[in-house]
């Protein structure tokens, strides 16, 4: 398969896109772990979620 005179541009573009996607996936994984740890800490300290209340309790 020949990519012609623009082969280096095409390959570089695909590599850059793959690197960006890999960085985003890593960032999301790290943030997910951080958020779940924060939620565990809040749960241990007794903080409850507002969404846990029913609509009748809000009035």
TrEMBL record:
Q: Report the locations given in the UniProt record.
A: Cell inner membrane
Which InterPro entries does this one have? Haem_export_protD_CcmD
Q: Which UniProt keywords apply?
A: Cell inner membrane, Cell membrane, Cytochrome c-type biogenesis, Membrane, Transmembrane, Transmembrane helix, Transport
User: Superkingdom, according to UniProt?
Assistant: Bacteria
Q: Give the transmembrane ranges.
A: 6-30
Its main subcellular localisation, reduced to a broad class, is membrane
Instruction: Describe the task this protein carries out.
Output: Required for the export of heme to the periplasm for the biogenesis of c-type cytochromes.
Q: Which family does it belong to?
A: Belongs to the CcmD/CycX/HelD family.
Protein's name in the database = Heme exporter protein D
């Amino acid at each position: 398969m020949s990519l012609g005179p623009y082969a280096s541009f095409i390959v570089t573009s695909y590599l850059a896109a793959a690197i960006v996607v890999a960085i985003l996936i890593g960032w999301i994984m790290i943030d997910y772990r951080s958020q779940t740890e924060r939620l565990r800490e809040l749960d241990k300290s007794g903080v409850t979620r507002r969404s846990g209340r029913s609509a009748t309790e809000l009035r």
